[in-house]
Each structure stands twice: as structure tokens, then as C-alpha cells.
Amino acid sequence: MALLEAKGLIKSYGGTEVVRGLDLSIQPGECLGLLGPNGAGKTTTLKMLLGLIEPDAGSIECLGLPVPQAAREARIRIGVVPQMDSLDPDFTVAENLQVYGRYFRLPESILNERIPRLLEFAGLASKANNKVPTLSGGMKRRLTLARALINDPDLIVLDEPTTGLDPQARHVIWQGLRSLIAQGKTVLLTTHFMDEAERLADRLIVIDHGVKIAEGSPREMISQFIEPHVIEVFGEGALDWKMEGQKLCTRLEVAGETLFCYALDEVPALDSLKTQTGLRYLHRPSSLEDVFLKLTGRELRDQ
Amino acid sequence: MNRHHLAPPRLSLRFIPVWRRNFLVWKKLALPSILGNLADPMLYMLGLGYGLGSLLPQVNGVAYITFLAAGTVCYSTMNSATFEVLYSGFSRMHVQKTWEAIMNAPLLLDDVMLGELAWGASKSLLSGVAILTVIWTLGLQYSFWMSLLVLPVVILIGLTFSAMGLVMTAISPSYDFFLYYFTLAITPMVLLCGVFYPVSQLPGFLQNVSSILPLTHAINLVRPLILGKTPPNALMHLLALSAWGASSYWLAVVLTRRRLLK
């Protein structure tokens, strides 16, 4: 039985449908990645699943409880890492966990036992008595993750957990999430970082304009939607190679001054490019990012 | 607007951890906070009470400082509740996203709002008690036992003005917005509701305006108690204050649901 199941979710704001008939389910122990460009409806979907906003239509069952009717009861067993920092700046690291634990009515004895373990998990044991404003961005995120675990949740919901972090900090968060998944926690995560989705998620749902446009494991999606080889051609005269490229590649995309050549067999295109002086090119295996761009297009979304 | 947003506020003891959170922050800054909250009303009361009082032998048959002391209890309580839910409440709701974090736990917006209401009233109780302590120290009260009845009234005043302030917090885009509330509501009440002089000194139409304002009802309850008397029309004043408080709180909850639960 699914741990979380949503059917036909619809939500509109001022006549614009932000989520348009979305179905989604998560099995226990699974890590589901919800992908989509800015404004695709990811955060709205999460808020509906948590019972913080009411869908205009559709049904949600989370941990066996109907949402939003019993959302409060469901949230007793959910941990949330929100997109925006919402730590208490007036409190120390340990106090943040303690105060948050009280919202779950956890007795102080349980909190006193859990907090040191969570600080250890988040690599913040030496910072227990530091105030939040003295922490780096990565430490704040780790503390937010630790805070989401204070109730030992069955489901962990993360909204863009590594946005704005440097590579070191992202890798530490990923390690933490992997260990949670290994412990059997169920994870729902939104992201627009494809490497993050590829590393963590067992299954992905790509949404755009409020509808699901693809679903599958990262590997399945790459093999289903995209050619195995990508050659990026750039530099002066790249566009002059377009005619030639169209004959040699399976599919060719132009983005500004760059050609993206997708190929089942990369050899003919590479042979041709070797004879072109002045052209620079990069040959790499295709990735989830290519799938994402193919599915959602290359235009900017936050304008 | 969603019809669920119009439902009456839900009252649950789940507000307690929200109240405790605010109390824990306050405890860290208690001393400067108390001094900052109390210096201003106390200076007004003592400065005007003795300074102006020496020119005014009696007001309504009592020493001016005694007259003013009762008004100061009310206005200090009002200010304390108002500042708390406006500025600090807005920080927690909008700037620090504290409310959002709490609502990801098993609490509802209504629990958070009730916690803020109770916290605003708690802060204002502290202000009221501090002014009362000055009154007791100076021996301005006519009966100590009657003056103790001011305490429950102060709690009601604190709840009423916290609720009214939460309406402003619900619709405010920024801190600057609160200035309108002070200019258009708080300051007029301080000047028209009988803090500094009897309302009967005002022209008739201003007396009519004054008679419906919540601070007038507060003062009409507290002043007789300081003077050792049972307040005339006590029930009416209590009901009026409660009506201001309850209707404001309902409105504040509806407006905040509309703002945050979308």
C-alpha cells in the first residue's frame, strides 16, 4: 500500500491553474524526486500534500489519513525541510531542536536523548550552544534537516534542500539523506538540480505547468527520452556546422551560439568536427539534465 | 475567499508550546525588555502626575497623579500588547518564517494565532503589573484589595488589544504600515479615552466617539477600582471590551488564513 497517494490534484490562483490534475504516489521506503522548472507547481503540490493549502479538487491520503481533513495528525509522523530558512535566530542550535520538539508534544526526556544524536548526525555537535546567526549556510541547512527528524518521522519532505549551498555542503546533505534512505525512511524531495535527483531518487516525476510530463527511475528516463551521446559545439562558426550536424546527429538543438548534438552513434559527428578548425566541442554521455531540458524546454522560467 | 477561512477561530491548548517559544526568547532579553517597556509610561505618569498635578489640585475629586495612574495602567497595557503583536508578531510571521516552521509541525495556524494572542496578553499583563506596583509603592490606591481586581481586567485589556493588533499584522506588507495604526487608532485613543483628563471635558461629539472606543471601557473599569469603588456599568464595559476583542480576533484569524493558507 502506498505511503502517500494523491489523485487528480487541482489548484488555481486567480483563475490560473498552477496544478492541473496531478497524480502521485510514494511507496514506503522509496525516495521520490519531484522535478520541474521554477513555477512548475512543485511547492504548491508539497503544501497540498502537507495539508497546508486545500486543493480545489482531488484527493490525498497520507500515512493512511485523509488530507487536509486529518493533516495535523499526519504531520505528527512527517518531517519537513522547507525551502526558506525558518530557524529561530534567537535560539542556539540545540534550543532550536528542543523548541521544535515541543510542537510535537515530545516529552523532555525523549528530546534530551534525541537532540545529541541529531546534532551528531548533522555534524553540529560542537555547535550545540552556538546561536543560529553564527552558522554557515550549510550548517543551517543541516540543522533544518536535523529539526525535521526530531519526531523520528516516517516520511521526510524536502523542498529544494540544497539550493544555494556550495558543493561541499551539498555533498554532506546528500550523505545524510542517503543514510536516512538506507534506514528505510520514505523521502519526497523537490529539486531542480538533476545531479541531486540522479543521486538520491529511486523514481522521478517531472512536472511542468502543473502536469506530470514524465515518470520513471533516473536510468529509465535517460534511456527512454534521450540519445546516449551529447556533443556540445560552440565557438566561432558553430552555427555554420549546423547543416552538417543535422545530417550526422540524431537530433540537434540550438541554444544561443551553442549546438547540442544528440546522437545514438557519436563517431560520424566527431570525425566531422575533428576536421573543423576553430570549433570547440565537448563530447559527454547524456544525463538527466538533457532529459529535463528536452521535456521542459530551454526558456528561462523566472521572468 | 475560501469559505473555510471564515470559520470561527479554533481554540485548543496546542497554543502552549507557541507561547513557551516566545517566552523562551523573551527570557533571554528580559531585563532590557522590561526596562524598555516600562520606562516610558512610568516617566509619563510620574512627570505629568507630579508636574502637571501640582498645578491641578484635584481632578474629579482625587489627586491628579492618582487620576493619571489608573489611565496609565490601561494605556501601558494597550501599548505593550500592541507593540508585541505588531512588530514582534510580524517578525515571527513574515521575516523569520517562524509561523511557517510551526505549521509544518502538527499545529494549525489557529494554534499559532492563539499562542500569539496569549503571548501579547502576557506581555501586557507584565506592563500592567509594573505600573500597579508603582501605584502600590506610592500608595495611590484607595483599597489594596479592590486594586487587585485590576489584574483580571488588565488580562482582558491585553487580550483585546492583542486581538486588534493581530488584525493589523494580518494585513501589513511591512513594518512601516504599523505607523498608520498608531496614528489613526492608538494615539487618538490615548488622547480621547480619558487617560490624561476626564472624557467629560471633551465636546459632545468627541465624547460620543470616545464612548465606543475600547480604551474608554478599559479606563472606566480600572479607575474606579484604583479608587476603591465598584465600577458603574461594569458588566457593560466588560462586554464591550470582550466584543472588541472577540470580533477583532475572529477577523484577524480570517485575514491571516487568507494570507498564509494559500
Topology, please?
The complex is a heterodimer of chains A (303) and B (262).
Chain A lengths: L3 E10 L2 E11 L4 E5 L6 H8 L7 E6 L2 E3 L3 H5 L2 E4 L11 H11 L4 H14 L15 H12 L6 E5 L7 H16 L3 E6 L2 H7 L2 E6 L2 E6 L1 H8 L3 E6 L7 H7 L2 E5 L2 E6 L3 H8 L5 E6 L2 H9 L7
Parallel strand pairs in A: 3-8, 3-9, 6-7, 7-8
Antiparallel strand pairs in A: 1-2, 1-4, 4-5, 9-10, 11-13, 11-14, 12-13
Helix pairs in contact in A: 3-4, 5-6, 8-11
Chain B lengths: L15 H13 L1 H22 L12 H32 L2 H7 L4 H30 L5 H5 L1 H22 L6 H15 L11 H9 L1 H13 L7 H27 L2
Structure explained in plain terms:
The complex is a heterodimer of chains A (303) and B (262). Chain A is an alpha/beta fold. Chain A folds into two domains: 4-223, P-loop containing nucleotide triphosphate hydrolases (Rossmann fold), CATH 3.40.50.300; 227-285, Alpha-Beta Plaits, CATH 3.30.70. In chain A, 35% of the residues lie in helices and 28% in strands. In chain A, helix 6 (167-182) links the parallel strand 7 (155-159) and strand 8 (186-191). Chain A is globular. The two termini of chain A are 41 Å apart. The mean pLDDT of chain A is 92. Chain B has one domain (27-260). Helix content of chain B is 74%, strand content 0%. Chain B is an all-alpha fold and 262 residues long. The interface between A and B is medium-sized, with 29 and 23 residues.
Number of domains of chain A: 2
Q: What does the overall shape of chain B look like?
A: globular
Count of alpha/pi helices of chain B:
11
Regions with little confidence, pLDDT below 50 for 5+ residues of chain A: none
The number of helical elements of chain A comes to: 11
